[in-house]
Amino acid sequence: MKLNLIGGDWVEGSAIRQNINPSDVDDVVGEYAQADAAQARMAIDVADAAQRTWSLSGIQARSNALEFNAAELLARQQELGTLLSREEGKTLAEGIAEVVRAGQIFRFFAGETLRVCGHRLPSVRPLVDVEITREPVGVVGIITPWNFPIAIPAWKIAPALAYGNSVVFKPSDLVPGSAWALAEIISRSGIPAGVFNLVMGRGSIVGNEFVKSEKVDALSFTGSVDTGRRLAEQAARGLKKTQLEMGGKNPLIVLNDADLDIAVNCAIQGAYYSTGQRCTASSRFIVQKDIHARFVSRVRDALKALNVGHALEPETNIGPVVDAEQLRTDQDYVEIGRHEGATLAYGGELLTRRTPGYYMSPAFFTDTTPEMRIAREEIFGPVACAIAVDTYEEALDVANDSEFGLSAGICTTSLKHATHFKRQMQTGMAMVNVPTAGVDYHVPFGGTKGSSYGPREQGSYATEFFTRVKTAYTQA
Q1: Domain harbouring 18, CATH code
Q2: DSSP for residue 341
Q3: Residue-wise pLDDT tens for the chain (476 aa)?
Q4: Which of 88, 112, 245, 378 is catalytic?
Q5: 301 shares a domain with 208
Q6: How buried is 47 (Cβ within 10 angstroms: 0-12 exposed, 13-18 middle, 19+ buried)?
Q7: How far is residue 34's CA from residue 16's CA, in Å, rounded to a whole number?
Q8: Same-domain check for residues 51 and 179
Q9: Same domain, 120 and 228
Q10: In terms of C-beta density within 10 A (0-12 exposed, 13-18 middle, 19 or more buried), how is residue 39 classed?
Q11: 117 an active-site residue?
Q12: Could you tell me the residue range of the domain that residue 411 belongs to?
């Protein structure tokens, strides 16, 4: 059984949870300890006690620790990628790529540790100097989802440690294996005991302690909109710094002048790879009418060529849905789409494979209108719909008509429309002739509206959340 990490010690939990392979529900990936509220409080206490020592340890020590994590992740990418794919269900190629990304994130922040900048300015008062510096926030509570079980923890934990904070980390119950493997590496990186703590368990128990505790100074969460809003309300009462990444209903606009090969690739890659289980996935194809029929035909043909199967089999393009609950949700939305009058142009069926798992053919709806639930609500599965429009202006209006604002894409050869789209799209990220899903590790990530709240994640912009600004005056 894999244990929690509290104060540098591996600690048994109050319960045990089995980690099940969604490609083969008879395969138990492992058993993982579940922390209770008392253990969550213990982890917060030791993180609070250790934080100041870590913040004063020096930037080279912090950089060395992060570089250690990076090197081991990259060296073990095949092993850890296999574990990730086995517990989450994305294909082996995607699992390995995610581990590589986690390693690159740690390596980036190993460098950023040495590049924290301040400013020295003259005061408006004679003989007075002003220094503007950045300091750690303190104890950071980190709560991560199941769809990127090692990359999302990495892009929160790495900057938290780089800038001198201590961490209490709660991963998703569905994917504790990747989180535990990452925690085990961090435990050997040379950081002082208590600076990093892993407390696996229920969000209603462990996460609730993060929100309630006066010793937790900041909360970084990725997950559902409803949970994020509830956490924001609770954290505000404690005046905690809060960073939330939540849902998306991301549009891909396809104009008449688009390169159809590029457009179909953006649609398939963005909507269906990783089984559509990405907050940046394209779930609305907004297509001009002159190209609509050809686009639909090409997407249908591309979907027919995809192989849905066991995540570890080399011929698999799309793995299973993560668990039975998510599969039920996906199937419910297929029925909702049919009931609303959309045409199921392809897929949406439960599939039987060599091993028992949560398999579903990718679903593609046409004859969809912007008011339909399948065009407005986040499904978080391999389900997408096409909406026909007359003009670019109508396409932009439909794309912006959403409570979400994470990522959006356009396929066009028009510089005029591409430039206008980047300026007028109400999202945090805008993609031209590239899929809406798939972002670099060294640039900011985040959205607008109901998709994100608080400072951006990733890249040098992470300093905005994981540090505080101090202004100091000195009389010469």
Answers
A1: 3.40.605.10
A2: T
A3: 899 999 999 999 999 999 999 999 999 999 999 999 999 999 999 999 999 999 999 999 999 999 999 999 999 999 999 999 999 999 999 999 999 999 999 999 999 999 998 999 999 999 999 999 999 999 999 999 999 999 999 999 999 999 999 999 999 999 999 999 999 999 999 999 999 999 999 999 999 999 999 999 999 999 999 999 999 999 999 999 999 999 999 999 999 999 999 999 999 999 999 999 999 999 999 999 999 999 999 999 999 999 999 999 999 999 999 999 999 999 999 999 999 999 999 999 999 999 999 999 999 999 999 999 999 999 999 999 999 999 999 999 999 999 999 999 999 999 999 999 999 999 999 999 999 998 999 999 999 999 999 999 999 999 999 999 999 999 97
A4: 245
A5: no
A6: buried
A7: 6
A8: yes
A9: yes
A10: buried
A11: no
A12: 250-432
Cα distances (angstroms) measured from residue 10 to each of 82, 192, 430, 469? 24, 15, 43, 35
Chain position carrying tokens 């001198």: 164
Residue 434: closest CA among 461, 407, 395: 407
Counted domains in the chain: 2
Q: Pull the structure tokens for residue 271.
A: 């909507």
Asked about 279 being catalytic, the answer comes back as yes
Answer yes or no: do 308 and 364 share one domain.
yes
